[in-house]
Amino acid sequence: MQRLRSQQLLRRPLWESRRLGGGYCTSSSSEKIVASVLFERLRVVIPKPDPAVYAFQEFKFNWQQQFRRRYPDEFLDIAKNRSKGEYQMDYVPAPRITEADKNNDRKSLYRALDKKLYLLIFGKPFGATSDEPVWHFPEKVYDSEPTLRKCAESALKSVLGDLTHTYFVGNAPMAHMAIQPTEETPDLPSYKRFFFKCSVVAASKYNISNCEDFVWVTKDELLEFLPEQAEFFNKMIIS
To answer: Can you tell me where the transmembrane regions are (predicted)?
Structure first.
Protein backbone atom coordinates (compact mmCIF):
# COMPACT_ATOMS: atom_id res chain seq x y z
CA MET A 1 0.00 0.00 0.00
CA GLN A 2 2.81 2.35 0.94
CA ARG A 3 4.69 1.47 -2.27
CA LEU A 4 1.61 2.16 -4.42
CA ARG A 5 1.15 5.55 -2.79
CA SER A 6 4.77 6.47 -3.47
CA GLN A 7 4.36 5.59 -7.15
CA GLN A 8 1.27 7.79 -7.37
CA LEU A 9 3.21 10.72 -5.88
CA LEU A 10 5.99 10.25 -8.44
CA ARG A 11 3.47 10.30 -11.28
CA ARG A 12 1.89 13.52 -10.01
CA PRO A 13 2.20 16.30 -12.63
CA LEU A 14 4.80 18.96 -12.03
CA TRP A 15 2.27 21.76 -12.09
CA GLU A 16 0.25 20.02 -9.36
CA SER A 17 3.37 19.66 -7.21
CA ARG A 18 3.99 23.38 -7.54
CA ARG A 19 0.36 24.11 -6.69
CA LEU A 20 0.66 22.02 -3.56
CA GLY A 21 3.74 23.87 -2.40
CA GLY A 22 6.48 22.07 -4.36
CA GLY A 23 8.50 23.31 -7.32
CA TYR A 24 11.17 25.95 -7.30
CA CYS A 25 12.01 28.10 -4.33
CA THR A 26 11.94 31.90 -4.56
CA SER A 27 13.55 34.30 -2.13
CA SER A 28 10.63 36.69 -1.86
CA SER A 29 7.38 37.26 -3.72
CA SER A 30 7.89 41.03 -3.58
CA GLU A 31 11.44 40.94 -4.96
CA LYS A 32 11.55 42.04 -8.58
CA ILE A 33 13.56 40.38 -11.36
CA VAL A 34 15.00 42.48 -14.19
CA ALA A 35 16.30 41.16 -17.52
CA SER A 36 19.02 43.30 -19.12
CA VAL A 37 20.51 42.79 -22.58
CA LEU A 38 24.18 43.14 -23.44
CA PHE A 39 23.72 43.92 -27.14
CA GLU A 40 27.09 43.70 -28.87
CA ARG A 41 28.53 44.20 -32.31
CA LEU A 42 31.38 41.79 -32.91
CA ARG A 43 34.71 42.78 -34.43
CA VAL A 44 34.69 43.61 -38.12
CA VAL A 45 38.46 43.42 -38.69
CA ILE A 46 41.19 41.44 -36.99
CA PRO A 47 42.81 43.43 -34.18
CA LYS A 48 46.41 44.49 -34.60
CA PRO A 49 48.73 42.11 -32.72
CA ASP A 50 50.53 43.21 -29.61
CA PRO A 51 54.03 44.60 -30.39
CA ALA A 52 55.64 41.76 -28.42
CA VAL A 53 53.61 39.17 -30.36
CA TYR A 54 54.44 40.85 -33.67
CA ALA A 55 58.15 40.89 -32.83
CA PHE A 56 58.07 37.17 -32.01
CA GLN A 57 56.20 36.33 -35.22
CA GLU A 58 58.75 38.29 -37.27
CA PHE A 59 61.63 36.53 -35.51
CA LYS A 60 59.98 33.14 -36.10
CA PHE A 61 59.49 33.88 -39.80
CA ASN A 62 63.10 35.01 -40.29
CA TRP A 63 64.36 31.94 -38.41
CA GLN A 64 62.29 29.57 -40.57
CA GLN A 65 63.51 31.26 -43.74
CA GLN A 66 67.02 30.02 -42.99
CA PHE A 67 65.92 26.37 -43.27
CA ARG A 68 63.22 26.58 -45.93
CA ARG A 69 63.49 24.44 -49.05
CA ARG A 70 63.81 26.31 -52.30
CA TYR A 71 61.49 25.30 -55.14
CA PRO A 72 63.19 24.37 -58.45
CA ASP A 73 63.36 27.17 -61.00
CA GLU A 74 61.43 25.05 -63.49
CA PHE A 75 58.48 24.87 -61.09
CA LEU A 76 58.51 28.62 -60.49
CA ASP A 77 58.62 29.34 -64.23
CA ILE A 78 55.53 27.15 -64.81
CA ALA A 79 53.64 28.98 -62.08
CA LYS A 80 54.52 32.35 -63.62
CA ASN A 81 53.36 31.27 -67.06
CA ARG A 82 50.02 30.04 -65.72
CA SER A 83 49.30 33.40 -64.09
CA LYS A 84 49.78 35.30 -67.37
CA GLY A 85 46.58 36.23 -69.10
CA GLU A 86 44.35 35.31 -66.14
CA TYR A 87 42.01 37.82 -64.57
CA GLN A 88 43.65 39.64 -61.70
CA MET A 89 42.05 42.12 -59.34
CA ASP A 90 43.97 44.77 -57.49
CA TYR A 91 43.18 44.36 -53.81
CA VAL A 92 43.01 47.51 -51.74
CA PRO A 93 42.25 46.92 -48.04
CA ALA A 94 39.59 49.08 -46.44
CA PRO A 95 40.83 51.66 -43.93
CA ARG A 96 40.82 50.62 -40.29
CA ILE A 97 40.06 54.21 -39.24
CA THR A 98 36.62 55.31 -40.45
CA GLU A 99 34.93 58.70 -40.61
CA ALA A 100 32.96 57.77 -37.50
CA ASP A 101 36.27 57.24 -35.67
CA LYS A 102 37.58 60.61 -36.81
CA ASN A 103 34.37 62.40 -35.76
CA ASN A 104 33.95 60.32 -32.59
CA ASP A 105 30.43 59.43 -33.73
CA ARG A 106 29.27 57.03 -31.03
CA LYS A 107 25.87 56.58 -32.65
CA SER A 108 27.47 54.74 -35.55
CA LEU A 109 28.19 51.03 -35.71
CA TYR A 110 30.92 51.69 -38.27
CA ARG A 111 33.60 52.64 -35.75
CA ALA A 112 36.24 50.86 -33.65
CA LEU A 113 36.16 48.04 -36.19
CA ASP A 114 38.82 46.02 -34.36
CA LYS A 115 36.86 46.05 -31.09
CA LYS A 116 33.46 44.98 -29.86
CA LEU A 117 30.77 47.63 -29.41
CA TYR A 118 27.96 47.61 -26.84
CA LEU A 119 24.66 49.45 -26.83
CA LEU A 120 23.86 51.81 -23.96
CA ILE A 121 20.66 53.81 -23.73
CA PHE A 122 19.95 56.97 -21.73
CA GLY A 123 16.89 56.93 -19.51
CA LYS A 124 15.55 55.96 -16.12
CA PRO A 125 16.19 52.28 -15.32
CA PHE A 126 14.40 50.21 -12.73
CA GLY A 127 15.73 50.83 -9.23
CA ALA A 128 17.09 54.30 -10.01
CA THR A 129 17.74 56.34 -6.87
CA SER A 130 16.73 59.62 -8.52
CA ASP A 131 14.54 60.92 -11.34
CA GLU A 132 17.59 61.88 -13.39
CA PRO A 133 18.18 59.68 -16.47
CA VAL A 134 21.35 57.57 -16.54
CA TRP A 135 23.14 55.29 -18.98
CA HIS A 136 22.15 51.64 -18.79
CA PHE A 137 21.51 48.51 -20.88
CA PRO A 138 18.09 47.77 -22.44
CA GLU A 139 16.02 46.15 -19.71
CA LYS A 140 12.57 45.03 -18.65
CA VAL A 141 11.06 43.94 -15.36
CA TYR A 142 9.95 40.31 -15.49
CA ASP A 143 6.17 40.15 -15.60
CA SER A 144 4.31 37.27 -17.21
CA GLU A 145 6.71 36.05 -19.90
CA PRO A 146 7.10 32.26 -20.17
CA THR A 147 10.88 32.49 -19.70
CA LEU A 148 13.39 35.06 -18.58
CA ARG A 149 14.93 35.07 -22.04
CA LYS A 150 11.56 36.07 -23.51
CA CYS A 151 11.60 38.96 -21.08
CA ALA A 152 15.06 39.96 -22.35
CA GLU A 153 13.83 39.72 -25.94
CA SER A 154 10.94 42.04 -25.08
CA ALA A 155 13.39 44.49 -23.52
CA LEU A 156 15.51 44.68 -26.67
CA LYS A 157 12.47 44.71 -28.97
CA SER A 158 11.09 47.76 -27.17
CA VAL A 159 14.25 49.63 -28.17
CA LEU A 160 14.88 48.27 -31.68
CA GLY A 161 11.29 47.75 -32.81
CA ASP A 162 11.95 44.18 -33.97
CA LEU A 163 14.53 41.43 -33.54
CA THR A 164 15.16 40.66 -37.20
CA HIS A 165 18.91 41.31 -37.19
CA THR A 166 19.71 39.99 -33.73
CA TYR A 167 20.88 36.70 -32.24
CA PHE A 168 20.52 35.81 -28.56
CA VAL A 169 23.37 33.61 -27.37
CA GLY A 170 21.77 30.76 -25.44
CA ASN A 171 18.78 30.66 -23.14
CA ALA A 172 20.59 31.21 -19.84
CA PRO A 173 21.86 34.57 -18.55
CA MET A 174 25.57 35.28 -18.68
CA ALA A 175 25.68 36.98 -15.27
CA HIS A 176 23.53 38.50 -12.57
CA MET A 177 23.74 40.94 -9.70
CA ALA A 178 21.65 41.20 -6.54
CA ILE A 179 20.72 44.74 -5.49
CA GLN A 180 19.97 45.45 -1.85
CA PRO A 181 19.18 48.73 -0.08
CA THR A 182 22.01 50.33 1.87
CA GLU A 183 22.35 53.05 4.50
CA GLU A 184 22.98 55.60 1.76
CA THR A 185 20.02 54.36 -0.33
CA PRO A 186 17.38 53.02 2.09
CA ASP A 187 14.56 53.56 -0.44
CA LEU A 188 16.25 51.37 -3.05
CA PRO A 189 14.08 48.33 -3.86
CA SER A 190 15.53 44.86 -3.53
CA TYR A 191 15.80 43.09 -6.88
CA LYS A 192 17.94 40.82 -9.05
CA ARG A 193 19.25 41.80 -12.48
CA PHE A 194 20.06 39.08 -15.04
CA PHE A 195 22.17 39.84 -18.12
CA PHE A 196 21.61 38.17 -21.50
CA LYS A 197 24.04 38.41 -24.42
CA CYS A 198 22.77 39.26 -27.88
CA SER A 199 24.75 39.95 -31.07
CA VAL A 200 24.25 42.20 -34.08
CA VAL A 201 23.59 40.17 -37.25
CA ALA A 202 24.02 41.63 -40.76
CA ALA A 203 23.07 45.17 -39.80
CA SER A 204 24.87 48.50 -40.04
CA LYS A 205 22.20 50.64 -38.39
CA TYR A 206 19.19 50.27 -36.09
CA ASN A 207 16.23 52.57 -35.56
CA ILE A 208 16.64 52.92 -31.80
CA SER A 209 13.76 54.53 -29.93
CA ASN A 210 12.01 54.64 -26.54
CA CYS A 211 15.03 56.31 -24.93
CA GLU A 212 16.40 59.83 -24.63
CA ASP A 213 19.72 58.96 -26.22
CA PHE A 214 21.94 56.02 -27.12
CA VAL A 215 25.60 55.24 -27.84
CA TRP A 216 27.68 52.35 -29.18
CA VAL A 217 30.76 52.09 -26.98
CA THR A 218 33.78 49.85 -26.53
CA LYS A 219 34.44 48.04 -23.27
CA ASP A 220 36.83 50.71 -22.02
CA GLU A 221 34.31 53.44 -22.86
CA LEU A 222 31.51 51.44 -21.24
CA LEU A 223 33.41 51.30 -17.95
CA GLU A 224 33.66 55.10 -18.06
CA PHE A 225 29.91 55.41 -18.61
CA LEU A 226 29.16 53.04 -15.69
CA PRO A 227 31.87 53.80 -13.10
CA GLU A 228 29.91 52.47 -10.09
CA GLN A 229 29.65 48.96 -11.61
CA ALA A 230 32.95 49.14 -13.51
CA GLU A 231 34.56 46.31 -11.54
CA PHE A 232 31.59 44.02 -12.10
CA PHE A 233 31.32 44.70 -15.84
CA ASN A 234 35.07 44.42 -16.30
CA LYS A 235 34.82 40.82 -15.11
CA MET A 236 31.57 40.05 -16.92
CA ILE A 237 32.54 41.32 -20.37
CA ILE A 238 35.33 39.45 -22.13
CA SER A 239 36.56 41.67 -24.95
So the answer is: none
169/82 Cα distance (integer angstroms): 47
- Checking if the pLDDT of 103 tops 70, the result is yes
Residue 87 above 60 pLDDT? no
d(CA 172, CA 195) in angstroms, rounded, equals 9
Q: How does pLDDT run across 160-184, given as a tens digit for each residue?
A: 999 999 999 999 999 999 988 877 7
pTM tops 0.85, yes or no: no
